[in-house]
Amino acid sequence: MKTTIHAERAPVAIGPYSHGTCYGNLIFTSGQLPVCKEKGGVVEGGISEQSVQCLENLKYVIEAGGGSLETVLKTTCYLSDISDFAAFNEVYKTYFKTDCPARSCFAVKDLPLGVKVEVEAIAHVHA
After folding, report:
1. CATH number for position 98
2. Phi-psi bin for 45: left (phi > 0), alpha (psi -120 to 50), beta?
3. CB under 8 Å, gap of 24 or more: what pairs does 39-42 form?
4. pTM for the full predicted model
5. Measured in whole angstroms, how far is the alpha carbon of residue 13 from the centre of its chain?
6. Neighbour-count burial for 74-83, b at 16+ CB within 10 Å, e otherwise
7. Half-sphere exposure (CA, 13 Å, Cβ side) for 6?
8. For residue 54, what are the domain limits?
C-alpha cells in the first residue's frame, strides 16, 4: 500500500505533490530544492550552499519515510549549469561517503524558482 511522506523539517511543496511516498519498503522522494523552511525561500549563495540545502531537505524526507542517507539506492541530480558539476560533487561526497548510491546527474534548461540544483532519491526503509 502506498503511503504519503510529510517531513516536518522540509519546506512545503510548491505544487500538487508530496514530499515523497513509500510503497512496501521503498521510499521515493520528490525533487528537493534549496529552499530553507526556517528562513523561508531559496538559500543565499551559489551552488555549494544550494547543494547543502537540497541534500539536507532530501535527508529530512528520507528520514520521515523511515530511511536514512545510508539506505539511499539511487539519486537523480539536476543542475542548471553543468559547469557546477565539480562543486556539486564536493558537497555530495560529504553526504554519501561510502557505499555510494547509483546516481544520474545532468544539466537541465531551467529549474523551479531559478535554483541551481534539485535532487531526488529512491531509498529503502531501515530493516
Report:
1. 3.30.1330.40
2. left
3. 42/113, 42/114, 42/115
4. 0.96
5. 13
6. ebbbbbbeee
7. 2
8. 2-124
Q: Are 125 and 23 in contact (CB under 8 A)?
A: no
Spell out the per-residue pLDDT of the chain, length 127, in tens: 999 999 999 999 888 999 999 999 999 999 999 999 999 999 999 999 999 999 999 999 999 999 999 999 999 999 999 999 999 999 999 999 999 999 999 999 999 999 999 999 999 999 8
Query: What is the rounded CA–CA span in Å between residue 32 and residue 54?
Result: 5
What is the number of structural domains in the chain? 1
Neighbouring-strand partners of residue 23: 2, 26
